[in-house]
């Protein structure tokens, strides 16, 4: 799903993204590194896994892509994992929701039993974001009223940059201001 933002909104989203990246950089610096840089890369991969794919087994985490700034491109490894049929549809859906990529396609692939799982209290740390997407897929009118705020808070707290950008883009102007103000105050 693609979306466009006006200049002010883009500036605010960029500011939020920078705050999330600073937090992630601070966390990654807590891991000791050696001169080879290999341990630093390993730390970044472990951090990415803990944020985006905590339930994905390590054997599935083989394909990482780096930006020219030395950071992991969050969406490319996620896309690779989401397309892997060797991983359960539920785990792939959780990851898809984390990066707001192919959520509709994943929902269509799921059985009714799998779908029902995301409406119940599940133990995923991004549960509010999952509820937002589950109700969005069903076209529920209560999504914005009941689940948007929890989804935004969850995405910000966990550091799901792509989800923050997406939710910011689909929010009303007042919700955007509130979201930006809340993140600045923290």
Order of helices and strands: HHHHHHHHHH
Structural class: mainly alpha
Rounded mean pLDDT is: 78
Report the span from N to C terminus.
30 Å
Query: Mind describing the biggest β-sheet?
Result: none
Q: Could you give a quick summary of the protein structure above?
A:
With 186 residues, the protein is mostly helical.
Q: How is this structure best described in words?
A:
This protein is mainly alpha-helical and 186 residues long. It has 2 domains: 1-28 and 42-55, no CATH class; 56-183, no CATH class. It contains 10 helices and no strands. The chain is globular and about 40 Å long. The model is unreliable at 30-35 (pLDDT under 50).
Secondary structure: elements and pairs:
Layout: H1 7-29, H2 38-52, H3 75-82, H4 89-99, H5 103-109, H6 112-117, H7 127-137, H8 143-158, H9 161-169, H10 173-185
Q: Which terms would index this structure?
A:
186 residues, mainly alpha, 0% strand
